[in-house]
């Protein structure tokens, strides 16, 4: 697995990589994850049955390039330090499959033919066509990529120099990524459409993220953070506390509720995090995942008010996995995960009136909420490891069956590249 971040740095994408690596190891595969060194102290360690290699990137040493000390993202072009690190991992681990999940793949592309491995790319976002990865332009959905427009947009987002380099590199590298990937996986139909995979003629399949089979099993001893939760059932939001996650819309909607239960918001603060909060709103910053799952268990219902097209929101699956229904926006990959009116209620993004009305409906109608909770539990069965991981295994098997018909430069001799 190639993933720029890995726990303890956590988000939906990192959670998916960990879940997939762990599930594959439990099913008898030998699995390693190559990730950035900033996510842990040891160059190599074990996470359960998964070996984790933590690599030093050249650009990650240039701290002034990054606005966040913890998340120093990899670039959309080969990083010399990461390329050398991946070469060492390949020589030691000798993978049959390399499965990439983000821009760390660009440091693998020069090694792909030499490695002899089959190459799978899961697209969790719109990075194949957008340097910002989200196809948002001027605060709204972008009408489509164009070189000059992308350069200007990326420069505004990242800064003039960094933005121009990022946009130009991503634009140029798209062809190599499409050519060298043996299979693309997309986590939702929205991601497949947004990345224009059908028009590109590449081999792809839509396979959603998933949650562990035992997601509803909680530790007997709750983490200390759980003691801070309200005693009564509450509305729960979990995610980055920024504009694109819809936090401002949620606060606006909450002000309009009648006899509202408490609102709990758990996530990573930013400059966009709302400060003017109504009474009975509780913000908790960066809780461990175990504490978040206990919060889901004690919640009344979940709220996922994103205005950014979510690729395949893990938070939606975790909410349903804990037997809760939710109100979410009809955007991105969320409609793939739920059945509107059956396991969840979907509303237009950015519409505080609609969001408030849907939340009020579920608060005021316990019997409807209970029916939808039962439907959510049934729905999430198709989004658990037992259903999704065998589909990914099958793709690996198909690719390896095709490999036996070809001559690979490294195969099992592993000659060293120049």
Topology of helices and strands:
Elements: H1 12-26, E1 31-36, E2 44-47, E3 50-55, H2 80-93, E4 97-100, H3 112-115, E5 118-123, E6 136-137, E7 140-141, H4 147-158, H5 160-180, E8 183-186, H6 189-194, H7 197-200, E9 204-206, E10 235-238, H8 247-255, E11 263-267, E12 281-285, H9 289-298, E13 301-304, H10 314-321, E14 326-329, H11 334-337, E15 344-347, H12 352-364, H13 366-380, H14 385-403
Parallel strand pairs: 1-3, 4-5, 5-8, 8-9, 10-11, 10-13, 11-12, 13-14, 14-15
Antiparallel strand pairs: 2-3, 6-7
Helix pairs in contact: 4-5, 8-12
* Helicity, as a percent range: 25-40%
Order of helices and strands: HEEEHEHEEEHHEHHEEHEEHEHEHEHHH
Largest sheet: 6 strands, parallel
Residues in β-strands, percent: 15-25%
Structural category is alpha/beta
What's the Cα radius of gyration?
22 Å
Total number of helical segments? 14
In terms of per-residue confidence, which ranges show pLDDT below 50 for 5 or more consecutive residues?
407-418
**Tally of extended strands?**
15
Shape by Cα distribution: globular
Mean pLDDT level = 89
Distance linking N and C termini: 24 Å
Strands across the major sheet, in which order? 12-11-10-13-14-15
């Amino acid at each position: 697995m190639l993933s720029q971040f890995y726990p303890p740095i956590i988000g939906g994408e990192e959670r998916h990589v960990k879940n997939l690596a762990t599930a594959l190891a439990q099913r008898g595969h030998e699995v390693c994850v190559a990730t950035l060194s900033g996510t842990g102290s040891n160059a190599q360690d074990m996470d359960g049955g998964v070996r984790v290699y933590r690599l030093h990137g050249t650009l990650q040493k240039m701290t002034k390039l990054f606005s966040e000390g913890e998340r120093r993202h990899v670039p959309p072009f080969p990083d010399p330090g990461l390329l050398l690190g991946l070469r060492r991992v390949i020589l030691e681990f000798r993978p049959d499959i390399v499965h990439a999940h983000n821009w760390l793949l660009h440091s693998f592309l020069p090694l792909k033919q030499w490695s002899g491995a089959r190459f799978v790319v899961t697209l969790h976002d719109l990075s194949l066509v957008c340097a910002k990865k989200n196809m948002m332009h001027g605060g709204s959905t972008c009408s489509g990529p164009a070189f000059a427009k992308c350069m200007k947009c990326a420069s505004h987002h990242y800064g003039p120099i960094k933005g121009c380099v990022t946009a130009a590199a991503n634009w140029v590298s798209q062809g190599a990524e499409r050519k060298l990937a043996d299979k693309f996986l997309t986590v939702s139909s929205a991601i497949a459409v947004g990345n224009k995979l059908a028009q590109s003629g590449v081999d792809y399949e839509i396979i959603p993220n998933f949650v562990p089979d035992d997601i509803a099993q909680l530790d007997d001893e709750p983490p200390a953070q759980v003691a801070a939760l309200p005693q009564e059932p509450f509305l729960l939001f979990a995610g980055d506390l920024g504009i694109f996650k819809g936090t401002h819309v949620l606060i606006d909607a909450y002000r309009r509720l009648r006899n509202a239960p408490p609102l709990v918001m758990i996530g990573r603060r930013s400059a966009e995090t709302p400060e003017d909060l109504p009474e009975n709103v509780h913000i908790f910053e960066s809780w461990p995942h175990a504490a978040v799952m206990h919060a889901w268990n004690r919640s009344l219902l979940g709220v996922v008010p994103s205005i950014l097209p979510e690729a395949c929101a893990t938070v939606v699956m975790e909410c349903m996995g804990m037997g809760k229904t939710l109100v979410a926006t009809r955007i991105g990959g969320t409609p793939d995960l739920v059945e509107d009116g059956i396991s969840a209620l979907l509303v237009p993004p950015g519409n505080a009136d609609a969001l408030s009305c849907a939340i009020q409906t579920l608060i005021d109608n316990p019997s409807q909420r209970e029916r939808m909770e039962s439907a959510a539990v049934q729905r999430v069965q198709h989004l658990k490891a037992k259903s999704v991981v065998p589909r990914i295994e099958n793709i690996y098997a198909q690719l390896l069956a095709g490999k036996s018909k070809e001559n690979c430069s490294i195969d099992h001799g592993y000659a060293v590249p120049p």
